[in-house]
């Protein structure tokens, strides 16, 4: 079992969610697997839009791959945005070729990773989003494994630097 590190916060708007995604994207080096969890409308695609921006992909071209299952984007490192919402069984998952993206270079962001259809690597970065109100979201970032602990540290360092500069009040840690 890999080591687990976690950070919790409140996001007050879609802009906050996208900015957190940007912090994550700027901190990625390539080859990471990001498992995204949350009900409909919690901001998973908004978060990926920010991740893409952090990877130097124009955020306006990022949209939900619910019906096409995978969108590929070329940025500083490649990004595969996967949506498992419509996948019902393991054979369908094999058909879309998700294993082709687990190449150690491509960042793979997987919405609905909790469907249990995909065996996720031990070293992964998990993002849990949940509704707190119509606009506010609770976010939990979990780093599983040593490499992902470094990613979490880089994301939080960016968050703290901006907070200290008072240029953004993104989120406040909660228990």
Characterise this structure:
This protein has helices at residues 14-27, 44-54, 90-96, 146-164; strands spanning 4-11, 33-37, 70-73, 79-83, 107-111, 124-131, 137-144, 171-173. By secondary structure, the chain is α/β, with parallel strands linked by helices. The chain has one domain (4-173): Rossmann fold, CATH 3.40.50.300.
Contiguous helical run count: 4
Q: What number of structural domains do the residues give?
A: 1
User: What low-confidence regions span 5 or more consecutive residues with pLDDT below 50?
Assistant: 165-175
What is the class in the CATH system?
Alpha Beta
Oligomer: single chain
Mean pLDDT, to the nearest integer, reads: 84
Largest sheet: 8 strands, mixed
Determine the CATH topology: Rossmann fold
Backbone shape: globular
Number of strands: 8
Structural class: alpha/beta
What is the H/E string?
EHEHEEHEEEHE
Rg over CA atoms, rounded to whole Å, is: 15 Å
Helix content: 25-40%
- Please give the alpha-carbon distance between the first and last residues: 24 Å
Strand order of the largest sheet: 3-4-5-2-6-7-1-8
Question: What is the element layout, followed by pairings?
Answer:
Blueprint: E1 4-11, H1 14-27, E2 33-37, H2 44-54, E3 70-73, E4 79-83, H3 90-96, E5 107-111, E6 124-131, E7 137-144, H4 146-164, E8 171-173
Parallel strand pairs: 2-5, 2-6, 4-5
Antiparallel strand pairs: 1-7, 1-8, 3-4, 6-7
């Amino acid at each position: 079992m890999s080591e687990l590190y976690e950070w919790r916060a409140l996001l007050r708007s879609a802009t906050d969610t996208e900015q957190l995604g940007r912090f994550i994207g700027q901190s990625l080096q390539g080859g990471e697997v990001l498992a995204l969890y949350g009900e409909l409308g919690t901001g998973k695609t908004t978060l990926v839009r920010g991740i893409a921006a952090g990877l130097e992909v124009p955020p306006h071209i990022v949209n939900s791959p619910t019906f096409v299952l995978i969108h590929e984007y070329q940025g500083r490192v490649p990004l595969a945005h996967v949506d498992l919402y419509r996948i019902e069984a393991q054979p369908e998952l094999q058909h879309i070729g998700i294993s082709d993206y687990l190449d150690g270079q491509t960042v793979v962001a997987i919405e609905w990773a909790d469907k249990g259809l995909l065996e996720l690597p031990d070293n992964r970065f998990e993002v849990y989003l949940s509704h707190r109100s119509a606009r506010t979201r609770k976010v939990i970032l979990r780093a599983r494994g040593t490499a992902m602990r470094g990613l979490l540290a880089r994301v939080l360092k960016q968050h703290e630097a901006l907070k200290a500069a008072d240029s953004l009040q993104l989120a406040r840690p909660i228990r």
